[in-house]
Amino acid sequence: MDFRDSPAEADFRSRLRAWLTDRAGTFPAAGDDEYWARQGEWHQALYAGGFFGASWPREYGGQELPPVYDVIVDEELAAAGAPPRPSLGYLVVGLGRHASAELQQRFLPGMIDGTQRWCQGFSEPGAGSDLASLTTTATREGDDYVIHGHKIWTSYSDIADWCLLLARTDKDVPRHRGISAFIISMHQPGIEQRPLQMINGVTTEFGQVLFDGARVPASQMIGAPGEGWALAMTVVGHEREPSTLGYSARYGKLVRQMANRVSGDVPEELAWAAVETEMLRLHVRRRLSEQLDGLSHGPEGSLDKLLMTWVEQSVGHAALAVGGVDDPDLLSAYLYSRAQSVMGGTSQIQKNIIAGRILGLK
Ligand SMILES: Cc1cc2nc3c(=O)[nH]c(=O)nc-3n(C[C@H](O)[C@H](O)[C@H](O)COP(=O)(O)OP(=O)(O)OC[C@H]3O[C@@H](n4cnc5c(N)ncnc54)[C@H](O)[C@@H]3O)c2cc1C
Q: 332 in ligand 1 pocket by Cβ < 6 Å?
């Protein structure tokens, strides 16, 4: 396996480096309210520069390059101290695999070029790990479905134009089979968005969304009634792969920043974080190489998610060891790392999937 850039990859990397050098000093600060407020602007700038959606279909505005180009983007953004690439690959894959050609043509270009913002309305106050128990309803009325229910932890709900929504369309069949998926406009009466403050003080990352009579055309259902579960499993499966999320480069950047600050003895937490980050970097390379060989992953995404969580939380512990509670950026990195074992499916759920679907335990 040769991890060095091919000539085309090296050319892409140097164009991106030059693009980033031209913009040095203008980046939104990563991770705070300003970053989230300007994330759309950053997404559109990356896209216009030719550095976003590199591996996605040309038909919808991507460049159909191998996924290694996305990793080059992640590495160079981290090296330049720029904010990460907004992560929405799981939504692109979800629509790409389950939506009709008509819906793909209508919605994927705006999602990829960043002119239309999206959120994912899956979790509810009583349905997170046990997503199939969701109670938001979609009731057919003429050409529309009418939505009632309560979604929570909905990332980007405050700025989203569209929501990929799961709702129950049939109560009389086994629960997984009664769920349908919709693309619903967030700009309409009957939708109330309430921000939630995160433990690190950020108020614009996610919120709760209350649906009370909001409408969605039946033509914006993805697949047939009852086919929402299959889409949900595709989306959460892809949410769990570190290679598509670019986290590995972000952790490496933080570890390097902390290493530069330390004089004298290196705290053990930082040494572990450095080792684990390098391990994740190599793991991501292996997954990429498997993807290039045409291998696609199912439940193995849960192993990736667990690994990614361990590494992020090690980096978080190192941040606390190096900065204590007095450095707001390092404290924020520690606090945010606590969310990694919950978002996209908790660590316990990943272990259940590994036990049942990979190890065959009952
Ligand atoms: C930063 C962040 C962003 C998020 N963004 C979104 C988003 O954009 N859209 C969205 O829909 N959701 C989002 N979520 C929600 C996330 O998917 C849920 O929080 C997650 O699935 C867990 O659900 P829950 O919070 O209801 O916890 P629960 O399911 O109530 O779990 C509580 C505890 O019980 C454990 N547990 C539950 N069931 C089992 C079991 N069968 N076996 C063993 N242990 C179990 C869990 O592991 C956990 O420790 C986000 C969450 C976070 C933290």
A: no
Phi (first) and psi of residue 212, to 5 degrees = -140, 80
pTM of full prediction above 0.85: yes
The CA 346 to ligand 1 mean position distance, Å, reads 5
Q: What are phi and psi of 35, to 5 degrees?
A: -60, -50
What is the rounded distance in angstroms from the CA atom of residue 171 to the CA atom of residue 159? Answer: 32
Question: Residue 4 burial (CB < 10 Å; 0-12/13-18/19+)?
Answer: exposed
* Of residues 316, 116, 310, 328, the one with CA closest to residue 202: 328
Ligand 1 atom showing the smallest separation from residue 236 Cα = 17
Is the separation of the CB atoms in 171 and 148 below 8 Å? no
Q: In a 3-state reduction of DSSP, which class is residue 227?
A: coil
CB atoms within 10 A of CB 170: 15
What are the tens digits of pLDDT across the range 48-100? 999 999 989 999 999 999 888 988 998 899 888 888 888 888 899 999 999 99
198 token code pair:
């995160």
In this structure, the number of other CB atoms found within 10 A of the CB of residue 172 comes to 6
Would you call 239 a catalytic residue per the annotation? yes
DSSP code at position 223? S
Burial 8-37 (b: 16+ CB within 10 A, else e): ebeebbeebeebbeeeeeebbebbbeebbe
